[in-house]
Amino acid sequence: MEKGRNDFIPKPVSRRRFLKASAVTAGATALGLGAGRPVLRALTAASQDRQIENQGEKIFQSSCFNNCFSHCRQNVHVRDGKVVKTSLASFPDNRYDRICLRGLAHPQRIYSPDRIKYPMKRAGERGSNQWERISWDEAIRTIAKKFGAVQEKYGKTALGFHVGTGDFGTLNGTNPGSIGLLQKALGVTNISLAVDAGFLPGINRVCGFWPGAWNINEHADVIHSKNIYVWGHKMEVAAIHHWHFVAEAMENGAKLTVFDPNYTGLAAKAHRHVSMYPGTDIALLMSMIQVIIDEKIYDKAFLLAHTCAPFLVREDNGLYLRMSDFGVAPTQGPVNPMTGKASMIDLNVVWDPATESAVAVNKVFAPALEGTFTVKGLKVRTAFDLLKDRVAAYTPEKAVKITDVNPEVIRSTARDFARIKPSTSIIGFGSQAYDNGPIWGHAIATLHAITGQIGKPGSFIGNTWFAYLGVNYSLAAPESIPMLYLPELIKNGTVKGKPRPPVKALWVSHANPLTAWVDSNYWINTFWPTLDFVVVADEQYTDTVRYADMVLPTAHWFEREDILTLGGTHPFIQHGEKAIEPCYESKPDVDIHRLIATGMGVGESFAATNEELLKLCFETPHFAKMGFTVENVRKQKALRFQPPGYVAWQDLKFTTSSGRMEFYCEHPLDQFQAPVPVDRLDSQRLPMWVPPREASRDNPLFKKYPFVLMSERPRFRVHTQWYNIEWLRELDPEPTLLINPKDAAKRGIKDGDYVEAFNDRGHAVAKAVLSEGIRPGVLSYPKGWHKQQYKAGCFSELDHRAFDSVGVNQSFFDALADIRKWKGSV
Ligand code: SF4
Questions:
Q1: Is residue 724 part of a domain?
Q2: pLDDT value at 30 more than 50
Q3: CB–CB of 806/741 below 8 Å?
Q4: Which atom of ligand 1 is nearest to the CA of 241?
Q5: Domain that holds residue 815
Q6: Ligand 1: does its nearest atom lie under 6 Å from the Cβ of 71?
Q7: Domain assignment of residue 88, yes or no
Q8: How far is ligand 1, taken at its centre, from the CA of residue 465, in Å?
């Protein structure tokens, strides 16, 4: 068996010095902007001094291309062709200058003992991690033969490609880029992630579609807010680069409220912590909306002028009453910049109280906000009336039974949000990690719509996540199915009820599905055995690599040139310079894709040079309009894609059909922008809370498994990346499970004991950490450990893979479990 070990691990900074510097950096970040930046600057200055000391050191600039969405600017220090360290680099706007321990630990990743050095083929059972080194020639020949045989026997789409979020390089990464080109050329099935960002389509329902993600104020803008609500988000750990702006807002007098079942580090810094029962966030939001409507503290002027509130809705079909219902033909409107097609204007109809008649929305200044009317024999109601009805069942006295939140707390949070201007919401992934994720987004956007808290400095619906995906989508794979549909394909030979060929061979890159996907045992025990051949292209020996038939070594981000078009927590597109040659026999992804295309007889799709391909991927009409070219990204290194002080929806022209915020969504779309089924329209047109599929106290299974199993984003890993970094493991050595001391005591569990969390799907053994901050009845584990690092099992074994056909969400927080002291070997 071969397993790569390094012959060179540079030690430019001793561990003691690293930990000392890291502690200063972490402390600095925790202290916020005021204290943090000078310390980081001192570290940078010190590194520059050392550069002078070390003649011959070259500094390149790049970033982490991963999915932590901070994308910090970094100096890559190179001596004798080796990366010896990384340090903070400046953006043109230095409020965004940050780095974290992971960014400082890159050399240990590049030269990790777990780095894949050569192409390898399996030399034992899948999962045995036994490998035989082979040449690139043999690897490509074998892949071409095996993939070709599967496509010939079962059809082109029997070859599945799963490309995860571990690299957002425009040419080499997840963006359509060269992997999209390869997929298109081979006619494969793209197996997409069932996203864990279910709230996006919900917000887009209300505000309208926005390319790539959704439209939010520049991250620094939160300092203008006076009232900040953070939902399900440990931003003090997972988004330190956004948190410091919140801290600055607090120094300016803003009030912070944290909504989280657990008492997090962020909650400890907040003015108010609202602990709801897990999975009840939507019910809580609906109760807040109920209070605001009941107490008439909504923003009436905003509702009438900028939302669908006064629009009349037909009782017979749930559609808006429009002028076409009066025989007025729609007219052609301007070209929709989102679709490139001309829009059709069919004006909505409102009720004019002055004339007691139904009129076009543009004919009356003060339409009725509430009421039921009969127009042309049709019964109609205002959209606001329908919302009022929908939330009527969520009075605080009723909502407390669902959420456990004291009615007076619900009232005060609702009143503050309506009255303190500007108020803002920062949303994490926790609240929507259930199969009704889109409704969570729909509900919070509705709260903003009725209070007019949008389109102003300090007021937005935000996340520490900002995508700016203006890349070339024409390169995307032609056919895509979310991974959650694979079980249907395996069992019935159908997807969404329609027959399609099986997936018999699999390519995986920038992903570690066997650890990261819900119900991980299913994929290993049921999906994997159906596959004739599995190839994983990666940089490290992940759990998924271990179950591959062949593994290809990919280059690290600093070993190739690329462009990063996702701003993350800053508004910059960045150039990633190539700092060193690819280590060992690794290759940049684009070169691997070219080899495979050539081997499989579609080399003409890669006839262009890498330079030409980079231009093809990046120089889209979208970026051309902004004057962005590969050349000027190279020259300027970081280009701002938002003007300073950018405020989303500032002109209050939303991209819905009416140009207003439509909390009543006539034609709701699902996670993939397809219309929701007719029988789901009522539950999707307005926000509606439904209990989590599993983690509900009303579920009979709750008697057997009385804990809700949740996870939290860790400081030391990004998903499952950085899992094996020696320096970071000293600070965070092994998987842990956070348990409330009272729950632990009932089971005789002490701090530091190994405990087994289990349910009918699987188990995980981790070290118990007793914490008063964990809500009784809840278990929480830091994400991102690999199966190989647990004493036994893995937490993703415990998650179910059931999903809602509208949300198509992996429900990471929707698992019931129990715990016991681990009696196995440790
Ligand atoms: S891991 Fe994220 S936060 Fe840390 S340095 Fe890299 S981009 Fe920045």
A1: yes
A2: no
A3: no
A4: 3
A5: 701-821
A6: yes
A7: no
A8: 13
370 and 482 share one domain: no
Q: Is residue 104 within 6 Å of ligand 1 at its C-beta? A: no
411 and 502 assigned to the same domain: no
Q: How much distance in Å is there from the Cα of 622 to the middle of ligand 1?
A: 27
The pLDDT value recorded for residue 12 is: 36
pLDDT digits (tens, 9 = 90+) for 511-549: 999 999 999 999 999 999 999 999 999 999 999 999 999
Among 170-184, 197-211, 547-561, 797-811, name the one with the lowest average pLDDT.
Answer: 197-211
Q: Residue 29 and residue 237: Cα distance in Å, rounded?
A: 10
Q: Which of 59-63, 211-215, 244-248, 430-434 has the lowest mean pLDDT?
A: 211-215
Q: Whose CA is nearest to atom 4 of ligand 1?
A: 100
The first and second tokens of residue 176, run together, are: 């359509």
Confidence of residue 70 (pLDDT cuts 50, 70, 90): confident
Of 312, 346, 342, which Cα lies nearest the Cα of 329?
Answer: 346
242 close to ligand 1 (CB < 6 Angstrom): no
My answer on whether 322 and 364 are in the same domain is: yes
* Total of domains in the chain: 3
Q: Where are the beta strands (DSSP E) in 353-462?
A: 357-360, 372-375, 378-382, 423-427, 461-462
Query: What count of other Cβ atoms lies within 10 Å of the Cβ of residue 55?
Result: 7
**Which among 86, 99, 244 is the best mutation to test ligand 1's pocket, defined by most ligand atoms within 8 Å of the CB?**
99
Compute, in degrees rounded to 10, the torsion defined by CA atoms 112, 117, 120, 126: 10
The CATH number of the domain holding residue 260 is: 3.40.228.10
Q: Is 564 in the pocket of ligand 1 (CB under 6 A)?
A: no
pLDDT at 238 over 90: no
Looking at the structure, tell me whether residues 792 and 755 fall in a common domain. Answer: yes
Q: What pLDDT sits at residue 4?
A: 35
